[in-house]
Design a protein that fits this description.
By secondary structure, this protein is an alpha+beta fold. Helices cover 22% and strands 31% of the residues. The protein is built from five helices and 15 strands. A six-stranded mixed sheet has the order 4-7-10-11-12-13, with helices on both faces. Strand 10, helix 4 and strand 11 form a beta-alpha-beta unit. It is globular and about 45 Å long.
Amino acid sequence: MRVTAKLPKTLAERLQQGGHPHRIPASWADYVDLLSASGDLPVEYDVENIIYMGIASDNHEAIVANIIICLGNILGDVPDMFIRGSNRHVYIPDFQKDYAPDVHVIQGAPEVFELRKGLTANTNPWLVVEVLSPSTYVRDMQEKLPFYKKIPSLRHIIYVERDRPLVTVMNRVGDSAVWETIDLDRPEDAFPIAGQSVYLKEVYKKVTFEAPEGKAKKPRNKKSGDL
Protein backbone atom coordinates (compact mmCIF):
# COMPACT_ATOMS: atom_id res chain seq x y z
CA MET A 1 0.00 0.00 0.00
CA ARG A 2 1.18 3.54 -0.66
CA VAL A 3 -1.27 5.48 1.48
CA THR A 4 0.15 8.78 2.75
CA ALA A 5 -2.48 9.37 5.42
CA LYS A 6 -4.68 7.29 7.67
CA LEU A 7 -7.88 6.18 5.97
CA PRO A 8 -10.99 6.80 8.07
CA LYS A 9 -13.03 3.61 8.28
CA THR A 10 -15.92 4.81 10.44
CA LEU A 11 -18.28 7.76 10.17
CA ALA A 12 -16.91 9.16 13.44
CA GLU A 13 -13.35 9.13 12.06
CA ARG A 14 -14.59 10.73 8.84
CA LEU A 15 -16.36 13.55 10.70
CA GLN A 16 -13.16 14.41 12.55
CA GLN A 17 -11.81 15.63 9.19
CA GLY A 18 -14.65 18.13 8.76
CA GLY A 19 -17.80 18.15 6.68
CA HIS A 20 -16.33 19.05 3.29
CA PRO A 21 -15.04 16.53 0.72
CA HIS A 22 -11.62 15.26 1.73
CA ARG A 23 -9.12 13.40 -0.43
CA ILE A 24 -6.30 11.05 0.48
CA PRO A 25 -3.73 9.69 -2.02
CA ALA A 26 -4.23 5.94 -2.31
CA SER A 27 -4.02 3.04 -4.73
CA TRP A 28 -6.99 1.19 -6.18
CA ALA A 29 -6.12 -1.71 -3.88
CA ASP A 30 -6.35 0.63 -0.89
CA TYR A 31 -9.77 1.77 -2.08
CA VAL A 32 -11.04 -1.79 -2.45
CA ASP A 33 -9.71 -2.62 1.03
CA LEU A 34 -11.60 0.38 2.39
CA LEU A 35 -14.82 -0.74 0.70
CA SER A 36 -14.36 -4.18 2.24
CA ALA A 37 -13.75 -2.74 5.71
CA SER A 38 -16.53 -0.17 5.68
CA GLY A 39 -18.97 -0.03 2.78
CA ASP A 40 -21.22 2.61 4.34
CA LEU A 41 -18.98 5.67 4.01
CA PRO A 42 -19.71 8.05 1.11
CA VAL A 43 -16.50 7.66 -0.93
CA GLU A 44 -15.33 7.88 -4.54
CA TYR A 45 -12.07 7.01 -6.29
CA ASP A 46 -10.45 9.36 -8.79
CA VAL A 47 -6.91 10.13 -10.03
CA GLU A 48 -5.26 7.83 -7.47
CA ASN A 49 -7.16 9.48 -4.63
CA ILE A 50 -9.88 8.31 -2.30
CA ILE A 51 -12.39 11.14 -1.97
CA TYR A 52 -14.49 11.15 1.17
CA MET A 53 -17.66 13.05 0.39
CA GLY A 54 -19.22 15.63 2.69
CA ILE A 55 -22.37 15.21 4.74
CA ALA A 56 -25.39 16.26 2.69
CA SER A 57 -27.39 19.36 3.63
CA ASP A 58 -31.17 19.39 3.99
CA ASN A 59 -31.55 21.31 0.70
CA HIS A 60 -29.34 18.79 -1.07
CA GLU A 61 -31.42 15.84 0.08
CA ALA A 62 -34.71 17.63 -0.64
CA ILE A 63 -33.59 18.29 -4.22
CA VAL A 64 -32.40 14.70 -4.68
CA ALA A 65 -35.74 13.40 -3.40
CA ASN A 66 -37.64 15.74 -5.74
CA ILE A 67 -35.61 14.60 -8.75
CA ILE A 68 -36.18 10.94 -7.94
CA ILE A 69 -39.92 11.63 -7.67
CA CYS A 70 -39.92 13.49 -11.01
CA LEU A 71 -37.99 10.73 -12.74
CA GLY A 72 -40.18 8.08 -11.12
CA ASN A 73 -43.32 9.76 -12.44
CA ILE A 74 -41.87 9.69 -15.96
CA LEU A 75 -39.88 6.43 -16.02
CA GLY A 76 -41.40 4.37 -13.22
CA ASP A 77 -43.58 2.32 -15.56
CA VAL A 78 -41.00 2.02 -18.34
CA PRO A 79 -39.80 -1.60 -18.14
CA ASP A 80 -36.19 -1.00 -19.23
CA MET A 81 -35.49 2.16 -17.20
CA PHE A 82 -33.97 1.87 -13.71
CA ILE A 83 -33.48 4.80 -11.28
CA ARG A 84 -30.69 4.62 -8.71
CA GLY A 85 -29.42 6.85 -5.88
CA SER A 86 -25.92 7.73 -4.70
CA ASN A 87 -25.38 4.45 -2.85
CA ARG A 88 -25.20 2.80 -6.26
CA HIS A 89 -21.92 3.83 -7.90
CA VAL A 90 -20.98 4.43 -11.53
CA TYR A 91 -17.61 2.99 -12.56
CA ILE A 92 -15.72 4.19 -15.66
CA PRO A 93 -13.52 1.24 -16.71
CA ASP A 94 -11.21 3.01 -19.17
CA PHE A 95 -10.08 5.48 -16.50
CA GLN A 96 -10.48 3.51 -13.24
CA LYS A 97 -12.85 6.06 -11.76
CA ASP A 98 -15.60 5.17 -9.30
CA TYR A 99 -18.20 7.93 -8.90
CA ALA A 100 -21.34 8.22 -6.80
CA PRO A 101 -23.72 10.55 -8.67
CA ASP A 102 -26.66 11.76 -6.62
CA VAL A 103 -29.02 10.06 -9.08
CA HIS A 104 -28.51 8.02 -12.21
CA VAL A 105 -30.70 6.13 -14.63
CA ILE A 106 -29.88 2.93 -16.53
CA GLN A 107 -31.57 2.15 -19.82
CA GLY A 108 -31.68 -1.52 -20.69
CA ALA A 109 -29.86 -4.29 -18.86
CA PRO A 110 -27.43 -2.93 -16.25
CA GLU A 111 -23.77 -3.59 -17.04
CA VAL A 112 -21.69 -3.91 -13.90
CA PHE A 113 -18.11 -3.94 -12.64
CA GLU A 114 -17.15 -5.82 -9.49
CA LEU A 115 -15.48 -3.38 -7.09
CA ARG A 116 -14.96 -6.15 -4.58
CA LYS A 117 -16.64 -9.48 -3.87
CA GLY A 118 -20.32 -8.81 -3.35
CA LEU A 119 -20.18 -5.14 -4.38
CA THR A 120 -20.67 -3.95 -7.95
CA ALA A 121 -21.09 -0.61 -9.72
CA ASN A 122 -22.97 0.24 -12.91
CA THR A 123 -20.95 1.09 -16.01
CA ASN A 124 -23.70 2.09 -18.47
CA PRO A 125 -25.68 5.07 -17.12
CA TRP A 126 -28.11 6.76 -19.49
CA LEU A 127 -28.57 9.84 -17.29
CA VAL A 128 -26.68 11.25 -14.28
CA VAL A 129 -27.65 14.01 -11.87
CA GLU A 130 -25.32 15.90 -9.53
CA VAL A 131 -26.52 18.47 -6.99
CA LEU A 132 -23.91 21.22 -6.72
CA SER A 133 -22.76 23.00 -3.57
CA PRO A 134 -19.87 25.44 -3.03
CA SER A 135 -17.72 22.64 -1.60
CA THR A 136 -18.35 20.20 -4.49
CA TYR A 137 -18.61 22.60 -7.44
CA VAL A 138 -15.04 22.28 -8.69
CA ARG A 139 -15.00 18.52 -8.32
CA ASP A 140 -18.35 17.98 -10.05
CA MET A 141 -17.89 20.52 -12.84
CA GLN A 142 -14.18 20.32 -13.57
CA GLU A 143 -12.99 16.90 -12.41
CA LYS A 144 -15.95 14.57 -12.99
CA LEU A 145 -17.76 16.17 -15.93
CA PRO A 146 -15.09 15.50 -18.62
CA PHE A 147 -15.13 11.81 -17.73
CA TYR A 148 -18.90 11.54 -17.51
CA LYS A 149 -18.93 12.78 -21.11
CA LYS A 150 -16.67 9.89 -22.14
CA ILE A 151 -19.17 7.21 -21.02
CA PRO A 152 -20.57 5.83 -24.31
CA SER A 153 -24.04 5.04 -22.93
CA LEU A 154 -24.58 8.43 -21.28
CA ARG A 155 -27.08 10.73 -22.98
CA HIS A 156 -28.02 13.30 -20.32
CA ILE A 157 -26.04 15.07 -17.59
CA ILE A 158 -27.98 17.31 -15.21
CA TYR A 159 -26.34 19.65 -12.70
CA VAL A 160 -28.63 21.24 -10.12
CA GLU A 161 -27.50 24.18 -7.98
CA ARG A 162 -28.29 23.67 -4.31
CA ASP A 163 -28.33 27.30 -3.14
CA ARG A 164 -30.13 29.01 -6.00
CA PRO A 165 -32.61 28.01 -8.73
CA LEU A 166 -30.33 27.01 -11.60
CA VAL A 167 -30.29 23.75 -13.55
CA THR A 168 -27.74 22.99 -16.25
CA VAL A 169 -28.78 20.27 -18.68
CA MET A 170 -26.30 18.67 -21.08
CA ASN A 171 -27.59 16.42 -23.87
CA ARG A 172 -25.42 14.33 -26.16
CA VAL A 173 -25.98 14.99 -29.87
CA GLY A 174 -26.71 11.60 -31.37
CA ASP A 175 -23.82 9.20 -30.81
CA SER A 176 -21.21 11.93 -31.19
CA ALA A 177 -18.82 13.50 -28.70
CA VAL A 178 -20.78 16.77 -29.00
CA TRP A 179 -22.93 17.95 -26.11
CA GLU A 180 -25.56 20.70 -26.13
CA THR A 181 -25.94 22.70 -22.91
CA ILE A 182 -28.86 24.75 -21.64
CA ASP A 183 -29.26 26.71 -18.38
CA LEU A 184 -32.66 27.10 -16.73
CA ASP A 185 -33.45 29.38 -13.79
CA ARG A 186 -37.20 30.12 -13.70
CA PRO A 187 -39.88 28.05 -11.94
CA GLU A 188 -41.80 27.63 -15.21
CA ASP A 189 -38.70 26.44 -17.11
CA ALA A 190 -38.63 22.75 -17.97
CA PHE A 191 -36.33 20.21 -19.61
CA PRO A 192 -37.44 17.07 -21.44
CA ILE A 193 -36.75 13.53 -20.22
CA ALA A 194 -38.02 10.67 -22.38
CA GLY A 195 -40.42 13.04 -24.12
CA GLN A 196 -41.93 14.49 -20.92
CA SER A 197 -41.20 17.74 -19.09
CA VAL A 198 -39.48 18.17 -15.74
CA TYR A 199 -40.23 21.64 -14.32
CA LEU A 200 -37.86 23.56 -12.06
CA LYS A 201 -40.72 24.30 -9.68
CA GLU A 202 -40.90 20.53 -9.07
CA VAL A 203 -37.12 20.11 -8.77
CA TYR A 204 -37.03 22.83 -6.08
CA LYS A 205 -40.32 22.01 -4.37
CA LYS A 206 -40.16 22.75 -0.60
CA VAL A 207 -36.57 24.01 -0.91
CA THR A 208 -35.75 27.21 1.00
CA PHE A 209 -32.83 29.32 -0.21
CA GLU A 210 -30.74 31.39 2.17
CA ALA A 211 -31.24 35.12 1.54
CA PRO A 212 -28.21 37.29 0.68
CA GLU A 213 -26.82 39.18 3.67
CA GLY A 214 -28.98 42.15 4.54
CA LYS A 215 -32.08 40.82 2.79
CA ALA A 216 -35.04 38.93 4.19
CA LYS A 217 -35.36 35.23 3.47
CA LYS A 218 -37.79 34.39 0.70
CA PRO A 219 -41.00 32.88 2.09
CA ARG A 220 -41.44 29.16 1.53
CA ASN A 221 -44.26 28.16 -0.84
CA LYS A 222 -46.02 31.51 -0.52
CA LYS A 223 -47.88 30.75 -3.71
CA SER A 224 -47.88 28.16 -6.42
CA GLY A 225 -44.79 28.30 -8.61
CA ASP A 226 -42.56 30.14 -6.11
CA LEU A 227 -39.10 28.76 -5.40
